[in-house]
Amino acid sequence: MKYFMSCLLVVLLFGCNEVNSKDERAVRKFVEQWNDSHTELKSAYLARDYMDVVNYYGKQLSRVQVQRDKNLLFEQFPDYRQNILNDEIDITKEAGKYLVTFIKHVSYDGIEADYESYLTVTMKNGVFRILREGVAEHSDNLDAPIFPKARENIRILSNRRQLFGDFDGDGLSDYATVISPEVTSTVDGTVECADGCHSVIVFNNKNLEDIVIEGAYQSQLENLKDLNSDGADEIGFWDIKPTSKTLYVFDATNGKMLTEPIVINTTVHKNLKLIDVFKKSGRNKITVTRSAEVDGKWILETEVVVLD
Fold it and tell me: Do residues 213 and 99 both lie within one domain?
């Protein structure tokens, strides 16, 4: 690796200084150990390598948050591997800190790529710890799914109830959850929410777009299985209100509704379950049952819907 690349990064952070051979060997050994720990089996060892607060790909994170992000990476890509290209590492020192630059070669999910990478390492209580981790800003393909930005939705999902299914039809399990609005007040039956009353279905699979449901603030998800024979599971969204509940049936691959919303008047038609209002009744056919007001009385109406 050319020395000027190291200095280019260091100009912004430290200024280039030489490192004696003893220091370099110790730092190099630490970085090689850190690199070797980037597998699912060894990921627990990474926690010891970071300071309590880390500048991690441009964001300030705690050591616990960094470890959680590494775990998500290995869960998403169990075959993830990385190594230091040609074992070439450049080290410069400033005020007790070491800037380590190298080309990181990664492989995951059948993809291989190289990234100009860096660590800032310091000594604490006699052991090395990482203060900073990242890649050069001019690197190509920084939107790759191995970087933390791509896992922001996954971190949101990990803190909420998850619905599992194959929502894109690739034969692999996905999961979804709902980001609900913050209800700020309820006056005379009218609910107000911060930033508007709408809910968003989000998926861990980045190939699936978020689905926004306007006017929904309390909900429940259902896996409706494959209804239209495209190989992907459909997703059901219950919009729950004090006197009603409404089932939306979505094709997760494109976010479109497969039928009109199925509205149930829960004041009259109580304790109805999913099987009472919705069922698959043939190839590309579903039977739906909804509440309807006829001649001043609420009844249940059933119809067969043919899906495209």
Answer: no
| Contacts of range 210-214, beta carbons closer than 8 Å, 24 or more positions apart | 210/255, 211/235, 211/237, 211/250, 211/252, 211/255, 213/237, 213/239, 213/248
Pairing of strands 244-251, 256-257: antiparallel
Q: pLDDT tens for residues 29-47?
A: 999 999 999 987 788 888 8
Query: 7 and 146, same structural domain?
Result: yes
Same domain, 71 and 88: yes
Query: Are the C-beta atoms of 236 and 247 separated by less than 8 Å?
Result: yes
Q: What is the mean pLDDT of each run of 10 residues along the chain (308 residues)?
A: 43 48 90 91 86 92 86 86 94 90 94 95 93 90 85 60 90 89 74 84 89 91 94 95 94 95 95 92 94 95 92
Same domain, 12 and 145: yes
**Tokens 């070797």, residue located:** 36
> What is the total count of domains within the chain?
2
Read off the pLDDT of residues 207-263 as tens digits, 9 standing for 90 and up.
899 999 999 988 999 999 999 999 999 999 999 998 999 999 999 999 999 999 999
- Single out the residue in 106, 132, 151 at which a domain terminates: 151
Tell whether 115 and 7 lie within a shared domain. yes
Query: Using CA atoms, how far apart are residues 21 and 166, in angstroms rounded to an integer?
Result: 54
Residue where a domain terminates, one of 151, 174, 195: 151
What sections of the chain are H helices per DSSP? Answer: 3-13, 21-36, 63-76, 152-158, 274-277
Domain holding 271, by residue range, is 160-306
Cut 0.90: pTM above it: no
